[in-house]
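Retry 2 of 3 after timeout on previous attempt. Resubmitting structure tokens to design endpoint.
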């Protein structure tokens, strides 16, 4: 569990782990330089299964990698300090993995607000490009929620390659799922076992920065399948469109104007790029 100034929600998040029916867990908390009372709250839980480590403010990817390094279990599951697990999360998921020899699983779940009221659904079955191959689908559509993932630790024994990339910001989980999906097929458990919290104004205000981070993932992994290059570009266009819809909903018209302008610019450039790529590819 990476933590940075999470005093509002960390107690509820830790409690959702303690309340698990599956009891053979360890919770590795890495404080990423918090300046509030987060660590005091975490330390108040008298449970020997909770381990707390600290680092300077190096970011969520490095904090997760630190936690992985300190972990001792056979499986890895991920939970941020404001999200929640259903009490059956670990027992249900680990049973599925052991009974079917799955190495990588994920589930569906809910979206909740700051008061933990359900406001939406996490929908991993959404498949805008109609790609049935899970290892290809993840290349173009980030449909796996990090807090729902449980993986076998053996998948990331090569720590130099299969960890969260600290040079990515906000897309490091998508990048890891892409790489792990080339090693094993992700198995989906269609049960709501997690709650992802959305805090008002949590949408990144730096639209360009977020798009740049997605581009980094695309550039890093497009070699996996050259035929999906065009779909990568379509995924970027769809992502731009989602931002436009969010700004419109919030009536943030200045951001909407710039986002829409950027969207149509990227749309034109990507369509041209896709056309050139397929002309070149078909000639080969």
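Retry 2 succeeded. Sequence:
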């Amino acid at each position: 569990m990476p933590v940075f100034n999470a005093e509002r929600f960390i107690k509820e998040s830790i409690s959702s782990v303690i309340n698990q029916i599956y009891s053979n867990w360890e919770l590795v908390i890495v404080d990423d330089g918090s300046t509030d009372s987060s660590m005091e709250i975490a330390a108040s839980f008298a449970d020997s299964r909770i381990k707390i480590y600290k680092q300077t403010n190096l970011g969520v990817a490095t904090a997760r990698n630190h936690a992985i390094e300190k972990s001792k279990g056979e499986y890895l599951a991920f939970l941020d300090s404001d999200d929640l697990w259903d009490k059956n999360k670990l027992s249900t998921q680990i049973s599925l993995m052991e009974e079917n020899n799955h190495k990588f699983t994920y589930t569906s779940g809910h979206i909740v607000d700051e008061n933990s009221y359900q406001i939406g659904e996490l929908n991993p079955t959404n498949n805008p490009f109609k790609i049935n191959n899970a290892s290809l689908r993840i290349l173009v559509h980030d449909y796996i929620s990090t807090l729902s993932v449980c993986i076998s630790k053996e998948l990331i024994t090569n720590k130099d390659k299969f960890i969260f990339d600290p040079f990515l910001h906000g897309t490091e989980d998508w990048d890891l799922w892409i790489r792990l999906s080339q090693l094993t097929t992700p198995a989906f458990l269609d049960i709501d076992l997690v709650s992802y919290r959305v805090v008002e104004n949590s949408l990144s205000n730096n639209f360009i920065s977020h798009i740049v981070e997605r581009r980094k993932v695309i550039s890093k992994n497009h070699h996996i399948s050259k035929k999906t290059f065009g779909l990568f570009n379509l995924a970027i266009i769809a992502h731009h469109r989602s931002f436009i819809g969010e700004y419109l909903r919030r009536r943030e018209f200045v951001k909407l104007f710039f986002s829409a302008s950027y969207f149509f610019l990227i749309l034109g450039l990507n369509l041209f790029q896709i056309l050139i790529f397929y002309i070149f590819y078909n000639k080969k």
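Attempt log closed. The longest strand covers residues 187-197.
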